[in-house]
Design goal:
A two-stranded parallel ribbon has the order 1-4. Strands 2-3 form a two-stranded antiparallel sheet. By secondary structure, it is mainly α. It is globular, with a radius of gyration of 24 Å. The chain starts with 8 loop residues before the first helix and ends in an 8-residue tail after the last helix. It has one domain. The longest helix is centred in the first third of the chain and has 34 residues. Helix 11 packs antiparallel against helix 12. It is built from 18 helices and four strands.
Length: 454
């Protein structure tokens, strides 16, 4: 009789771990398909065709519905806070009831605080995304409602509302335009002092930009937790056309127009009041208390904000344009929809990563209508609609390690990795027959704010 050999426990465990790693770290089919289209032909899609595909009722804003979402979100954040204030009592009760050892008691404390820090960071991030909606006047047809809500929500997470609104709107008007976009500006070959592509050798890339995984991780941690505030303070990773120490907190900064000055001052005063509140709270309780209840989730919220804002436009398969080849539609299509953290991103972050392509075409449409907008415009966008279901943390690592630099010349460029390789290249023998018409459409777009096209 034939005998069968049972797989060993260690072999089964190894297979399980391998399967988990494959699930957590793999390129999604959509990403693989874009890589296969290695020769990139810039899209020539009419904005008017995209606009015509969206049913008119999706443009409507409901102040009542928007207020419901805001109040529900704030209420959940308050519930998380109440839970945190009861952690010590929960641990005491559990210790008395189950005679916990000091080690078990410590483990329980850390577990409960970790739960609070995660969920409150998720809630803080959602407040920021709702403030982002207000910055586009997308929650209410009444401008003052958007302003009041946006100021309150963004100030709570230490974001200067009016200052950030100005530069974010500029980002929308020049998305992935290397001359005009405001955020996540890529380094060029010249910035890294690399030899010209025709002369560069593998040794050149290895000596100049190759990093150890540990150092890459260190840089990621700094960027993830502090990057957004450093961008606000001194334009880190912002457009290099501005002078050093350009700041969102400086009313005279070149980021703003003279007529923005008073609004920037109001933002600064609001941030000052929030800092004063945190200092007073620390004085009457303790800094440790405020650190645990506010600053830890606030830092983690910045990590989530940087994650989805970075991944929206920084991807090896997504192009950057120089002025000659850029159009509004091409910039909007240089955007990737991602189901970041699944239902958490949809419920708590209001789909800011799920429907970002639609948001770039229609900034004034409220977030709760954008899923239907996405479905409506997909047939018009065709293969130029970018969606990527790659697991979020792996996608973040992939972009951080592969989106290293771009070439200093060329109308359409893609990121290159630390070996000087790009996964796609511009099919420069192709021309866009509608490019001139697209430029005309842009003028109409910028003047059609009531329809959400900016």
């Amino acid at each position: 009789m034939a005998t069968t050999t049972k797989p060993s426990t260690s072999a089964t465990s190894l297979e399980a771990h391998s399967g988990l790693l494959t699930w957590l770290a793999h390129d999604a089919p959509e990403y693989v398909e874009r890589k296969k289209r290695a020769k990139f032909v810039p899209p020539s899609i009419s904005i008017k065709d995209v606009h015509a595909a969206v049913p008119r009722h999706l443009f409507e804003k409901s102040t009542t519905k928007s207020l419901f979402y805001v109040f529900r979100h704030v209420a959940l954040s308050v519930l998380f806070y109440v839970f945190a204030t009861r952690i010590d009592g929960i641990v005491r009760s559990a210790s008395a009831a189950y005679h916990l050892s000091p080690l078990a008691r410590s483990a329980l404390i850390w577990t409960l605080w970790a739960m609070y820090w995660f969920w409150q960071s998720v809630a803080f991030t959602g407040m920021w995304t709702l403030g982002h909606e207000c910055g586009h006047d997308a929650l209410s047809q009444y401008s003052w409602v958007n302003t009041v809500l946006g100021m309150a929500l963004h100030t709570w997470v230490l974001t200067p509302y009016f200052a950030w609104r100005v530069t974010h709107r500029t980002h929308h008007k020049g998305t992935n335009n290397l001359a005009r976009d405001e955020t996540y500006h890529p380094l060029t070959r010249q910035d890294l002092k690399l030899p010209e592509a025709s002369r560069a050798t593998p040794i050149d890339y290895k000596q100049v930009i190759e990093e150890t995984p540990l150092y890459t991780l260190f840089k990621m941690v700094v960027r993830q937790f502090l990057g957004f505030q450093l961008y606000l303070i001194h334009n880190r990773k912002g457009n290099p056309k501005y002078p050093p120490w350009t700041s969102h907190y400086k009313p005279s900064s070149q980021l703003f127009k003279p007529q923005d000055r008073n609004l920037i001052i109001i933002s600064d005063v609001a941030i000052g009041c929030m800092l004063a509140f945190l200092a007073t709270w620390s004085y009457y309780t303790s800094f440790k208390n405020v650190w645990n209840l506010y600053f830890v989730p606030w830092l983690w919220a910045h990590n989530w904000i940087v994650t989805f804002t970075y991944l929206q436009h920084s991807d090896p398969t997504v192009p950057y344009y120089r002025e000659k080849s850029w159009t509004f539609a091409r910039g909007a299509l240089a955007t990737v929809d991602r189901p970041v953290f699944g239902w958490i991103g949809r419920f708590f972050w209001h789909g800011i990563a799920h429907d970002h392509v639609a948001h770039h075409f229609f900034v004034n449409i409220p977030f709760y209508n954008l899923p239907k907008v996405t479905e409506a415009i997909k047939p018009v966008l065709g293969e130029h609609y970018c969606y990527d279901s790659t697991p979020t943390l792996y996608a973040l690592w992939r972009s951080f390690t592969q989106c290293t630099f771009i070439e200093p010349e060329g109308d359409v460029v893609f990121f290159k990795n630390q070996r000087g390789e790009a996964v796609r290249e511009y099919a420069d023998d192709q021309t866009s027959t509608q490019h001139h018409g697209e430029k005309i459409a842009i003028g109409d777009v910028h003047g059609d704010a009531q329809n959400g096209l900016e």
